[in-house]
Design a protein that fits this description.
Helix content: 40-55%
Strand content: 5-15%
Shape: globular
Strand order of the largest sheet: 1-2
Distance between the termini: 25 Å
Oligomer: single chain
Structural class: mainly alpha
Number of strands: 2
Number of helices: 5
Largest sheet: 2 strands, antiparallel
Length: 72
């Protein structure tokens, strides 16, 4: 069983704020599968640092606007 990540994200919200971008559109823009985007959005998979930066770049926002990690 895969342990869910503690990293949370705002990808779903950002996709809808950017013209209701689909998971497939985002996946294509960063060179991964739609299933990868689904897993990241659901917190079942943490992206590599490079992929995280690519996602933030697509939305034109800082990395910490996309991904959050609990501090306590």
């Amino acid at each position: 069983m895969v342990k869910p990540t503690l990293v949370t994200n705002s990808i779903r919200q950002l996709r809808f704020e950017h013209g209701e971008m689909t998971q497939a559109d985002l996946a294509k823009r960063i060179g991964v599968t739609r299933q990868t985007i689904i897993a990241i959005e659901q917190g079942k998979y943490s992206p590599s640092l490079e992929m995280a930066f690519q996602i933030a770049h697509v939305f034109g926002v800082p990395l910490d606007d996309v991904f959050q990690y609990p501090t306590s």
